[in-house]
Amino acid sequence: MVPAASRSAKTNTISMAMMFLFICASNVFCEEVHSEHNNYSLTVGWGFMAGHTAYQIGGRYETPETSGKVRFPISELEFPLNTHYGSLGGEVELTDRIKLKAKIRKSISKDAGKMKDSDWGIWYEELDGWPYSDSLDIYSESDTKADALTVDITARYYFNPWQYKKTAVSIFIGAKYSWQRFDFTMSDLEQWYPSLVDYYGFTMEHDVFSGNIMEYEVTKKIPALTTGVQIAASPDFFLDAVFGYAPYVTVNDEDRHLQRSVFSTSDCDGEAVLLSLSGRFMLGARWSMGLAYDYMAIDTRGEEKQYFEGQYSATVEQKNFSNLHAVELTLGWIF
Length: 335
Description:
29% of the residues are buried. It is built from 3 helices and 13 strands, in the order αβββββαβββαβββββ. The two termini are 42 Å apart. It has one domain (4-334): OMPT-like (Lipocalin, Beta Barrel). With 335 residues, it is mostly beta strands. A hairpin with a 2-residue loop joins strand 7 and strand 8 (167-192). The chain has helices at 4-26, 122-126, 194-200; strands at 39-62, 67-80, 83-93, 98-107, 111-120, 136-158, 162-164, 167-192, 207-234, 237-257, 262-283, 287-308, 311-334.
């Protein structure tokens, strides 16, 4: 069950973006606010995202009875993000130099790939005489269904363009706020033991667990500074390149192992870099076709609190990171 605070944050973020898109559309019909500098556009799109979001735990730990340090990482869970999505976007040109944008992306397919769970150094701690402290001892894969929702709000300021023959080049600076929410459900786990195979020299039987195994939710808030260049290669063709850096990213997650009564939650912070390349071709005076590529890498660290059968059991270090690529085709209408 999603906590009320998490649902509220999700609703507020989506409401902000929907309000922005509503203003973009409604202002079209308000002649008193329209001037030669105001342009409005709406886009719908289809895209495919690929990549993963993952977390590692290990390092320093504390329990109600003791504290200490273990290998880092002792465990890693990697969740796939290979899914199709639809998008709705809006843009307002306030002046010749200032533009505001917003976009919502929502996954439209469920099967995202295999979740990978890796554990190192388990036998070194549990088996007397085990010689390898860093061996990959337990590895599993699970079928994964994902629900992805992202919201982006962007502001840009353009400097005077530089003209070369028929090409205009404009440098811009700006800010971008991204909100991401990914929900995963894992099922039908297959588990094996790589280091035992290497040690004993023969293949061991895999363990298989049917049904739902695990649920995982992660929310990411990414305020970034951006800069880039827009190139008008002709009156009908535009290229856009953006680079961004987010010095303070926050990540919150919840992890529920359904068959072991294990629950954990974490708070992490860190940084992110983002890159975007896009092209837009005008199809007459009002319509446009676009193609865009987006990349974002997030790296954060913090603490994970673990609970067993509803009771607090431990706190351990966590690293939460992701790499996400997205390719999107859009159709736009300019008012």
